[in-house]
Amino acid sequence: MREQKDLKQAIETLLFITDQPIDVPKLCQAIGVKDRDQVASLVSELQREYEERGAAIQVIEIAEGFQMATRPDYAAYVRNLFREKMTMRLSTAALETLSIIAYKQPLTRAEIEMIRGVEVIAALETLLEKSLVRVVGRKETVGRPLLYGTTPDFLRHFGLRNLQDLPAIDAFTIAELPLEGAPATGGDIPDAPVAGAAPEGPSPEEPVEPAPQED
Amino acid sequence: MTLRRAYEVHLEMFEGPLDLLLYLIKKNDLDIQNIPIAKITQEYLSYLEIMKELNLEVVGDFLVMASTLMQIKARSLLPSHPGLEDEGPDPRSELVAKLVEYQKFKQAASFLSSRAEQFQGIFYRGAPRFQEREKSLDIRIFDLLSTLKEILDRAEDDGRVITGEEYPIEEKMSKILQLVEESPYVTLRQVFEGERKRRAILTCFLALLELIKLQQIFARQGDAFGEILVYKKEAPPEVVTPVWPGFADPAAAAPEGEGPKEPGAESAEAAEAGGEGARDGGEAPSA
What we know:
The complex is a heterodimer.
Chain A: H1 4-17, H2 24-31, H3 36-53, E1 57-62, E2 65-70, H4 75-81, H5 92-104, E3 107-108, H6 109-116, H7 121-129, E4 133-138, E5 146-150, H8 152-157
Helix pairs in contact in A: 1-3, 5-7
Chain B: H1 17-27, H2 37-53, H3 60-77, H4 91-118, H5 141-153, H6 169-182, E1 185-187, H7 188-192, H8 198-213, E2 217-221, E3 228-232, H9 265-271
Antiparallel strand pairs in B: 1-3, 2-3
């Protein structure tokens, strides 16, 4: 059996190099270890070490996987480095369309429009273009309309580990009409990832069984 | 009223009839479950009227809603005949259900928005992909319209005589630019000061929209229903203060690739109301 340290560094390497979150099964595959619990706990160890060391980089659980990320404290410097570029901001229309998709996916454009009461073509295009949303199939009804769903980028952009991180839609009460920019009533969602504060229990990222054993 | 077609704004891109209704409910502090239908219908129609005058494209959706409202109103005026139950679903409760549901998603949207803000300072490997910000008004169109409505209510009617370009939009544009040149910001009301005629006011309003579109000015609003302030948009900011970083990563986009991608491509593109080339961040200077 390989040394823990060796394995941990292998994992660290992968988390460093990836530009997409990697989940535990994939890590297992890449480092040739079958024991997922072992890998998951090594990941947690890494998270903790980075945290304890007060490193500038954190290992965060995001979008159904793990990845290294910078810390908000230093965001300003990143922006200075990339100063000429603009950042993403979504219009109200796009955000509303996105939230409908997030909660109701997969669904068709007509179904979205039913809820918003207004055409959503432009908003949908924006979302597709920013890859927050993708086509996930076709509905087996007349005309076989496209079905839309959210992407991993969606989860990442909104700091969600998975879709279950979204508060239940009924948690949003009638009481408060959303005013523009008003902070929403939060659900019980982890705050911005203070890295250490990741998973305690079994890593939520997969329900035991089916390992996508495809290659 | 022939304001020039070129200045047509596609409202449906931003807000729809349900937004307008929710807006009116909130504005008048009404109970969503128990909307005074006559009052709301009347207000709704008066907003439609303004939108039409502005040549905002009052599309089907808004008109359909208008007829739904009037239908509900008509029904509520009729004495109920116990014998005539089978008139299909009650349009009123249908509408309320729709409003309630839609409102939840509006809240979900603002939840998402606050999440994004919370995570705006976290970047991932690979050069951060920043994206051009989407062109958006940043304030609700109905708030703009509401102010406009008040001002119009006090305007002198100039009849329906159309005498050429009495109020060229360019003139109003430079008037507004001059205003924001002279002071850090002006209130929306100030923009209309000195305008008496209905048509002049409308032109002035369109000039305002046009300038926002051209990214020469921007409008901000403190609280909901608060005063709308108009600022000059500065050249690209020196220090980096974009307030809305994100980390969309278009590189990640490619994967699912192939499939027929979009909903209605070309037509929607044409509908893009915003001008091209939003460049700088120009977020609200904290006044």
